[in-house]
């Protein structure tokens, strides 16, 4: 018997010790990050004795280059708390201000289980009148909401509450189950700067049944740090971005994109991706994909690389002629017969035989030459801004951006047939529309390639600058200024007398290169194609580099020249 009593006593003591340790864990060690779900017990306990309405989640915001907010809007709203249904409140006076029946307002309160926004946005006069009524549980306040129209949606990216992702990025921070994180785009790249420290909310204390504890006033809780939330100032121009999206939709772009760069600063002024992002279900279909930063088959746009290599390697003397009635293999007849052409006319008319032959000669000279010149023109590495920012080494503004490629392996580099197909931008060649636009900007500048900026600076909440992203050159060699000058003439020839001739009637002189890439994907017997036009303008005083691509279209549809032309006409008309 004594042994049994002793055993029971030991068991009880152990159980008490376990309970004490559990209480210590809850109250002392992990009150703000408890369990595998990292629950903030302090906040949850407050929720049990309070009703609250979130005014602002505290996350940083994106603005366009002119300081206009892009993703959130402040809306003057009437917030009603559901405990009003148990009170005698002046619903007649409130309904008179809003010009709505009092029965409608009372019905909305009776149906509510938590605080809610009632009715339409308010005017400043209405806000003043409502707050002067001093009705407990009725407040006219500025609420934050997602904009109905969010431009550059894929570039800015998607935000969501993802506890697992939050814990991976911020293992030492509480709040994994409630704090939104950036999942794609710039939201992902700048998440460290935009992640909220604290939200803004209205709080009422209530009893165990959810009834208002009279004598306690509403509390407005907001971040104590006057420097947050931070503001990310983008380089895009909101007006140009909206017009670019309108033009894409006008021409029924289903899959593809538009990239417009400011050549002087090498910054993105507009970036459009289609299809549109469905904010209610962002990862359904292709809406969340940012096609301008995904590597695509470029077709004849890649002939610009072969042209640069051929010029610098001295294999296209002025008197050299090419039989453009021949196909890329050199045997038989081409589907598109162009006759005998010199090198400039071969480029203007996009003769496949010429560039297949030149690519084979370059590969025979050095199997790495084609990739070398693709790198010189900035087509292989991601071109978005990267560098050291405070404690973040090698910070990338747009981490989702892909790089390009020419060959998959050394065997392909040594194969003449691969070289021929590579010379016309087929087989395994991939580049992004963003990199293609950046290549055109580099050529227009005389060969110097730069990183592309999407965000120019990060500002504190008070408007002072936290960090400015400087213009930066891309690493590696550039093409020579003489080669750039020669390419400028070739690109202008494409518009003056070649495949881009419909653009020769525009109010600004354009230089550029077209491309129609075979994808080897079919719908029935019809092959899907990628259609490109990339270039810059005005030719004599380059200001803009522009890339337009329509993906997975049939041969008889999806021309990109009208889209490119409408962008040029808009910018010229606006004097941009």
Question: Which labels suit this protein?
Answer:
576 residues, 21% strand, alpha+beta
User: Over the alpha carbons, how many angstroms does the gyration radius reach?
Assistant: 31 Å
The description of the largest β-sheet is: 5 strands, antiparallel
SS elements, strand count:
21
Number of helices: 19
Walk across the major sheet and give the strand order: 12-11-21-20-19
Average pLDDT reading: 89
Helix- and strand-based class? alpha+beta
Helix content: 25-40%
Name the poorly predicted regions.
none
Amino-to-carboxy terminus distance: 96 Å
Shape: elongated
The fraction of residues assigned to DSSP E strands is 15-25%
Short summary:
The protein is 33% helix and 21% strand. With 576 residues, the chain is α+β, with helices and mostly antiparallel strands. Strand 15 and strand 16 form a beta hairpin.
